[in-house]
Amino acid sequence: MRIGVVGYVGPVRTGIGRYIDEVVTRWRDRCATYRHDVVLFANKDSPLDLAKQDWVERRTIAPQSASALHNLMWTVFAGPRAYREARLDVLFQPNFT
Known about the structure:
Blueprint: E1 2-6, H1 15-26, H2 28-34, E2 37-43, E3 56-61, H3 68-85, E4 90-92
Parallel strand pairs: 1-2, 1-4, 2-3
């Protein structure tokens, strides 16, 4: 199974960033056991620890962390296309957008 994770967060890792890091890091053993792939969609300047893990496929999204408007536009228009292109089976999108 291909699991997509939307990891857009601000320039400083706060609550939602910690949550994403913790939840997905705890998936690691299960993903290896059941042969699941994790695809992280994160901004280029993402402070997530998860973005640095070699077992996670990272796809960079266009908006920088300081632009909430660009993030919203990407989420509404470009995001769905990117998720389809990644051929995901499920999408985990914990952020409010």
